[in-house]
Amino acid sequence: MNWKHLLMGTATVTLLAACASTKPETAKTAPVDATPKSTAPVDQNAANQGKVAVDPLNDPNSPLAKRSVYFDFDSNVIKPEFKPLVDTHAAYLKANPEQKVVIQGNTDSRGSREYNLALGQRRAESLKKSMEVLGVKDKQLEAVSFGKEKPKAEGNSDAAYAENRRDDIVYQQK
């Protein structure tokens, strides 16, 4: 083989290699998903159209919006008229074991500071025990007394006194 043939062969191979075309890569596109995207479930019931689920604790129309139990003068006995309210809160707490409440016992301004603190504590404990009897766990309930320190109504009228003789059910933030 002479150099001329070797040079011609190399040139031919180089020429063929240079002419060989490679298919250019096409830009890759994301595959198109033809399936419809799901959205939040839609309630098909016409009666529920336009309504948004609200936590019953934040719904002013819920029975749970009422959170005070009132007492007679110098008493820690829960009146029968407040039994449905206690039942409602107890049922909610049983259904939501992660929820906790502080029951705040309050009194009117009559009586000494010590007497009012003790009476407020008895009122809070009375409501706490009522809820425990209904099945609420002890760890969900705390009873404290504010005595006469957190009045709901100012003044020395019978109406103001009655407004201040109460337990407040205060739900704790999660």
Automatic annotation (TrEMBL):
BP GO annotations: cell division
Keywords assigned: Cell cycle, Cell division, Cell outer membrane, Lipoprotein, Membrane, Palmitate, Signal
Listed CDD domains: OmpA_C-like
UniProt cross-references to PROSITE patterns, sorted A to Z: OMPA_1, OMPA_2, PROKAR_LIPOPROTEIN
Compartment(s): Cell outer membrane
Region (Disordered): 24-59, 147-174
Listed Basic and acidic residues bias regions: 163-174
Comp. bias intervals (Polar residues): 36-48
Recorded GO CC terms: cell outer membrane
Entry-linked InterPro entries: Bact_OuterMem_StrucFunc, OMP_bac, OmpA-like, OMPA-like_CS, OmpA-like_sf, Pal, Pal_lipo_C
Domain named OmpA-like: residues: 58-174
NCBIfam families: Pal_lipo
Name of this chain's protein: Peptidoglycan-associated lipoprotein
